[in-house]
Design goal:
The complex is a heterodimer of chains A (414) and B (296). Chain A is built from 16 helices and four strands. The radius of gyration of chain A is 24 Å and the shape is globular. Chain A folds into two domains: 288 residues, ABC transporter involved in vitamin B12 uptake, BtuC; 95 residues. Chain A has 414 residues and is mostly helical. Helix content of chain A is 76%, strand content 2%. In chain A, the strands form two sheets. A two-stranded antiparallel sheet of chain A has the order 1-2. Chain A has a two-stranded antiparallel sheet with strand order 3-4. The mean pLDDT of chain A is 84. Chain A starts with a helix and ends with a helix. Chain B has 296 residues and is mainly alpha-helical. Chain B has a domain of 204 residues. Chain B has twelve helices and four strands, in the order H-H-H-H-E-E-H-H-H-H-H-H-E-E-H-H. Chain B has a two-stranded antiparallel ribbon with strand order 1-2. In chain B, strand 3 and strand 4 form a beta hairpin. In chain B, helix 2 packs across helix 9. The longest helix of chain B is centred in the N-terminal third of the chain and has 31 residues. Classes of the chains: A mainly alpha (414), B mainly alpha (296). At the A-B interface, helix 5, helix 11, helix 13 and helix 15 of A face helix 3, helix 4, helix 9 and helix 12 of B.
Chain lengths: 414, 296
């Protein structure tokens, strides 16, 4: 066994261990729901990265497979009455996702690049608009609800308690992660990378890029369907929202935020997005704004996503640069933190001034009145001072940072 | 006959409004190769700015001020955002505009709240213009038509008859050559992006009060404009025009006709799906769009 493969085995074992231990550490009822949600978004984001990261297909309608998978699962749950064990129910979602992946993928994968992005958007909107036409199947305004504990109880599992649901999600998550990772190492997965990087050369080698794209869309439809099926079981209700453009956008944001260049990137993205969606939403109602702003900042400044940041620090650690980088971070922490606080204060004040929220606004323990000029001018002054401080500090520490970057580049060349 | 005439007029009005958006979108696309997801957000900003300016100063100044503001924002977005994202590739560029649309919608929600704002048609343009087969045609619709046609003519004249238009058209097809001749191509890009945004903003000022001014308006119109651009052919201004009118008329008629095709599904129920069906059909039969020349 080579060193690399042993390392990989350890990583997978650690991943499985984390999945098993997570609900024991975070055992509160709310944390458990959060973990279930995270697991589902993880599968969904991984399936999306099969397109975006591995095949280079930017899809704006991936929620179609997720939503249809969820709908078919909940209908199967309602019609089946225990004929199919609940444990295998996500498979229903997966197969319906695969089915629609084949049908819709045939239309969408005729093109790559921007045209594919637009066709996927159009197809996504079309399916979402269909929910108005067939309220019977799509559930109309109220959605379709079901009961996961009515199915046959394999091994005495009723799936009544949330903890059983969590282990179901975790098991499917582990299964899907292994399957998707294995898929990325098959000839098909490798050809998908080739099609992403240079479709013409892939064609010269004798592969039809359109076919490769089609197969990847169909297969990622399967995994998205599994995620949808799990969502149907977890929430016990499916609404038209689950196949809307918003859901498609969310999985895109999660995947890109996490980092599409690494297999594990979407996992990080899914965790961050779920946390923002729930925890940040409890703190402020302006959370979608912060969410969008974080995404924009990622696109502009860290195109590789959070995974690339993590990998950078791993290399800093490996090459022994941590202390030098730490000095730069420590110097920048105060001015950047202050600037961020000022921006947050501005956003919150704008939100309060629009009159959608009740009660006084508190930032860093100080009460701010958003309807008078004083606080606005004060915060703007703080922001200006903090930005100036940022520039000033950066000018001081930039040489050190360049040293680190140079050392890293040298380490990479070795 | 009455239904036909009013639907046709409404459809043409809506189609012209769509064209004001799709013209900017397709110009930006053919120039930078990037589909601007935030284009409909500029339309929304135009509507909100139009609302603010028209309540403070008046509607007619708003017609000028609001599009200029939106255009300035668009130019800033190109200069400090898009250009940076462009450096890291095509997908980040597209995603940047996607994220921008998200942020603009939330910003609008933060500033003006989630409910529609009372942006009304000005009193001088309120009321019927003429009566056709016992159905009245509102003055404001005629005004909208007039503004969009005037805009169309100005755009056409500007692109084909002026020196600036010549440089823009040259920069579309041969940016390197234009740069070699001493023109500042990045600046041209910035101006075109700002101009496209301003056009969308103008559409927002005149469309916002005819329809509803709310934070969801960008998300509702955005995909339709995309459909128009794809159906017309990416990068083709004439194609965008034909497709705008076509989609506008088809959608208006589909909503108006109360006739059921299969079982319980009526035409008006199919209306929201129609543009997308047309788009998918076009992409299968003629992938480059009605009047498009490029393949992808």
């Amino acid at each position: 066994m080579t060193r690399g493969s042993r390392e990989r085995l350890v990583l997978w074992a650690a991943y499985a261990a984390v999945l098993v231990v997570a609900p024991i550490v975070f055992s509160k009822g709310f944390a458990l729901t959060l973990l279930c949600q995270m697991g589902i978004v993880m599968i969904f984001a991984l399936s999306y990265n099969m397109l975006l990261g591995q095949t280079g297909l930017l899809s704006f309608g991936h929620a179609v497979y997720y939503g249809l998978g969820a709908l078919f699962t909940i209908h199967a749950l309602n019609l089946g009455h225990g004929k199919l064990p609940v444990t295998l129910m996500p498979l229903v979602g997966g197969i319906s996702g695969l089915f629609f992946g084949i049908i819709l993928g045939y239309v969408t994968t005729r093109r790559a690049g921007t045209t594919f992005a637009m066709i996927s958007l159009g197809v996504g909107e079309m399916v979402a608009a269909c929910s108005l036409m067939f309220p019977g199947f799509f559930g109309g305004e109220a959605g379709v609800s079901g009961n996961r504990s009515t199915g046959s109880h394999l091994f005495g599992l009723t799936f009544g308690p949330q903890i059983q649901m969590y282990y179901l999600v975790a098991a499917w998550l582990l299964l899907c992660t292994v399957a998707m990772h294995a898929l990325s190492r098959t000839p098909l997965g490798r050809m998908a990378n080739a099609v992403r990087d240079n479709p013409e050369r892939a064609q010269f080698v004798g592969y039809d890029p359109q076919r490769v794209r089609f197969m990847m869309v169909a297969l990622s439809g399967f995994f998205a369907g599994v995620a949808g099926g799990l969502a149907a079981l977890n929430y016990e209700i499916v609404t038209a929202e689950s196949l809307s453009a918003r859901t498609s956008g969310l999985v895109l944001l999660a995947t890109y935020l996490g980092g599409m260049g690494f297999f594990f990137g979407p996992l990080i993205g899914a965790i961050v997005v779920t946390l923002m969606q729930t925890l940040l939403a409890m703190v402020t109602k302006a959370w979608p704004f912060y969410f969008g702003a974080v995404f924009l900042a990622t696109v502009l400044f860290v195109p590789g996503g959070l995974a690339s940041v993590a990998m950078l620090h791993k290399r800093l650690w490996d090459t022994g640069q941590v202390r030098r980088a730490g000095v730069v971070y420590a110097a920048m922490a105060l001015p950047v933190g202050l600037a961020l606080c000022a921006v947050i204060a501005l956003v919150e004040m704008a939100y309060h001034a629009s009159g959608d929220v009740e009660g006084p606004l508190r930032i860093l323990g100080r009460e701010l009145d958003a309807n008078s000029w004083g606080p606005w001018i004060g915060v703007l002054l703080v922001l200006a001072a903090a930005s100036l401080a940022c520039r000033w500090t950066w000018r001081r520490v930039a040489p050190r940072w360049h040293e680190v970057a140079q050392a890293l580049a040298a380490g990479g060349a070795r | 006959m009455q239904l036909f005439a009013t639907s046709l007029l409404n459809g043409v009005t809506y189609g012209l409004l769509l064209f004001m958006l799709s013209a900017g979108l397709t110009l930006i696309f053919s120039m930078m190769g990037v589909l601007n997801f935030a284009h409909a957000s500029f339309y929304m900003l135009g509507a909100y700015f139009g609302y603010v300016v028209s309540t403070r100063i008046g509607f007619y100044p708003a017609l000028v001020v609001a599009p200029l503001l939106v255009g300035a924002i668009g130019a800033l977005v190109e200069r400090y955002g898009l250009r940076r994202a462009h450096a890291s590739g095509h997908v980040p560029e597209l995603l940047f505009t996607f994220g921008l649309a998200f942020v603009i919608e939330e910003a609008v929600r933060l500033v003006w709240g989630s409910l529609p704002v009372p942006y009304k048609v000005p009193a001088s343009l309120d009321g019927p213009l003429f009566t056709l087969y016992s159905a009245t045609f509102p003055t404001y619709k005629a005004f909208m038509m007039g503004v969009s046609v005037a805009m169309l003519v100005a755009l056409y004249a500007g692109l084909t008859r002026t020196r600036a238009g010549l440089v823009i058209r040259a920069a579309l097809s041969r940016p390197d050559m234009v740069e070699a001749l001493g023109h500042n191509v990045p600046k041209v890009f910035m101006l075109v992006f700002g101009g496209g945004a301003a056009l969308a903003g103008l559409a927002g000022v005149i469309g916002g009060n005819a329809f509803v001014t709310e934070p969801a308006m960008a998300e509702a119109l955005g995909p339709i404009v995309f459909v128009v651009v794809v159906v017309g052919g990416l990068g083709s201004l004439a194609g965008a025009f034909v497709a705008s009118l076509f989609i506008g008329i088809v959608q208006t008629f589909a909503v108006a006709i109360d006739y059921s095709i299969v079982g319980r599904i009526s035409v008006s129920q199919v209306a929201p799906v129609l543009p997308y069906l047309i788009m998918v059909a076009i992409l299968i039969v003629r992938p480059r769009g009605l009047l498009g020349t490029r393949e992808s």
